[in-house]
Amino acid sequence: MTQFPHTRLRRTRMTAWSRDLHRETSLSPANLIWPLFPTEGHDQEVPVGTMPGVSRLSVDRLAKAAKEAASLGIPAVALFPHTSPARRSEDAKEALNPDNLICRAIRAIKDAAPEVGVLTDVALDLYTSHGHDGLISDSGEILNDATVEMLVGQSLNQARAGCDIIAPSDMMDGRIEAIRAGLEGDGFHNTQIMAYSAKYASAFYGPYRDAVGSGGVLKGDKKTYQMDPANAREALREVAMDIEEGADSVMVKPGMPYLDIIRAIRDAFDVPVFAYQVSGEYAMLEAAIAAGVLDRGKGVLEALMSFRRAGCSGVLTYHAPLAARLMGA
Ligand code: PBG
């Protein structure tokens, strides 16, 4: 016996009130984290050529952006500093400088908008002359354990400047445990760790590398530490390890091409899962909008809703302020 006409799935879709009542997933500004690109100087907004609508901001402008986040109900911002070539080196020692750009940005934001959470990236690519996330041996290997030591120092440097969430994006093994121990040892019991657990060696990071100034200098690729896009089960092992090592939350990156990974993690673990809708995804959406083949408002919100439906607590997205406004903030 066929269910139709007793069952008509269109019945609940007929009116706006009924659609409201039956909606399974919600999206609000509280689900967004806004990535920002600090740059040197004062009163500077330098457009990122590959990311229409996104600019690098000097520290004073970042403070304003943080206030904007607060007024839009966006709970947190994420910082990715553009380090000048002169401050990049083989050993990435600028990462440990207590007065480096990211530390000044953290302090300015905490000053201007203390109610906004500050997440900082931990990886050496922002400071290395070769653009890799770790230190390199003479034979060209990205050194795991020596890099982890640097990452602990980098994390402490950022925690001391007042950052709330340390987000290691380097994909070295064992770094969550080492960073957690470092933070505890220095009294930062309440500094969270959001682990980039399943970070793929992706083609979607191009515009970001342009924004932070590591694209031009990067030699080779990151396949010896970032994950193979063909792998899903391995992502679950990464997450299991990071939870065991002390991560408060985990992240999947990129976002839209990896919704299956988000869902698999959400089903397997009771840990908050975040996604990073990365620069290439932003550029792709903006290119479609510019070409007149995608409606900006509807397209942006539908893409963000997909992350919530897949099981995310929240999303890092360059569309955060636009999305918050579209939601009526
Ligand atoms: C690396 C890092 C990357 C991004 C954030 N941190 C990319 C990379 O591996 O080069 C990408 C973010 C984006 O594309 O928006 N530490």
Small molecules in complex: ligand PBG
Spatial separation of the terminal alpha carbons: 49 Å
Q: How large is the count of helical segments?
A: 11
Give the number of DSSP strands: 12
Helix fraction bin: 25-40%
Q: What form results from the Cα inertia axes?
A: globular
Superfamily at the CATH H level? Aldolase class I
Pathway: Porphyrin-containing compound metabolism; protoporphyrin-IX biosynthesis; coproporphyrinogen-III from 5-aminolevulinate: step 1/4
Keywords: Heme biosynthesis, Lyase, Magnesium, Metal-binding, Porphyrin biosynthesis
Subunit structure: Homooctamer.
Binding site for Mg(2+): 238
Explain this structure to me?
The protein has about 325 residues and is of the alpha/beta class. The chain has one domain: TIM Barrel, CATH 3.20.20.70. It is about 40% helix and about 15% strand. An 8-stranded parallel β-barrel has the order 1-4-5-8-9-10-11-12, surrounded by 9 helices. It has a two-stranded antiparallel ribbon with strand order 6-7. Strand 10 (about 250-255), helix 8 (about 260-270) and strand 11 form a beta-alpha-beta unit. Helix 2 packs across helix 3 (about 100-110) and helix 4 packs parallel to helix 5. The longest helix is centred in the middle third of the chain and has 17 residues, at about 145-160. The structure holds ligand PBG.
Give a summary of the structure in a few sentences.
With 329 residues, this protein is of the alpha/beta class. It has helices at 16-22, 59-72, 101-112, 144-160, 175-185, 206-212, 233-245, 259-268, 279-290, 296-310, 320-326; strands spanning 32-39, 45-47, 55-58, 76-79, 117-122, 135-136, 142-143, 165-168, 192-199, 249-253, 273-277, 314-317. An eight-stranded parallel β-barrel has the order 1-4-5-8-9-10-11-12, surrounded by nine helices. A two-stranded antiparallel ribbon has the order 6-7.
